[in-house]
């Protein structure tokens, strides 16, 4: 169950990171409220997952999910470049997440 909670926390991490772009410096009310809610939920769920999982593993997976998802959505939503080096680096992060899951 802790891994599921951590995965959802990572999804919320993606939500608030992408949401920051839509807040326009927290000048838009609805995106700002949603972004802040995603931030709070992400950290709260991480805290729940930490009851069971090692802190180093949980934090690395949480940030890894956020980094991969945000980078991919940056490519899809904002036209960030999808270079081979960028995609390869994203793949390495995914490999690290999988590796941490397998050894925990």
Derived structural class: mainly alpha
Q: Per DSSP, what share of the residues sits in E-state strands of 2 or more residues?
A: under 5%
State the end-to-end CA separation. 14 Å
Largest sheet properties: none
What coarse outline follows from CA principal-axis ratios?
Answer: flat
Number of strands: 0
Oligomer: single chain
Gyration radius, in Å: 14 Å
Helical content (DSSP H or I, runs of 4+) = over 70%
Order of helices and strands: HHHH
Helix count from the secondary structure assignment: 4
- Low-confidence spans: pLDDT under 50, at least 5 residues? none
Rounded mean pLDDT score: 97
What do you see in this structure?
With 104 residues, this protein is mostly helical. Helices cover 84% and strands 0% of the residues. It has four helices and no strands. Helix 1 (2-23) runs antiparallel to helix 2, helix 1 packs across helix 3 (55-78) and helix 3 (55-78) runs antiparallel to helix 4 (84-103). The chain is flat and about 40 Å long. The model has no long low-confidence stretch (mean pLDDT 97).
Key attributes of the depicted protein:
104 residues; mainly alpha; 4 helices
Question: Topology, pairings included?
Answer:
Elements: H1 2-23, H2 29-49, H3 55-78, H4 84-103
Helix pairs in contact: 1-2, 1-3, 3-4
């Amino acid at each position: 169950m802790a891994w599921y909670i951590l995965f959802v926390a990572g999804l919320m991490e993606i939500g608030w990171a992408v949401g920051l772009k839509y807040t326009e410096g927290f000048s838009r009310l609805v995106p700002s409220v949603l972004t802040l809610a995603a931030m709070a939920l992400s950290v709260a769920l991480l805290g729940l997952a930490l009851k069971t999982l090692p802190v180093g593993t949980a934090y690395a997976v949480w940030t890894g999910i956020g980094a991969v998802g945000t980078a991919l959505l940056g490519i899809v939503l904002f036209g960030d470049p999808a270079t081979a080096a960028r995609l390869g680096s994203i793949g390495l992060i995914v490999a690290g997440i999988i590796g941490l899951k397998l050894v925990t």
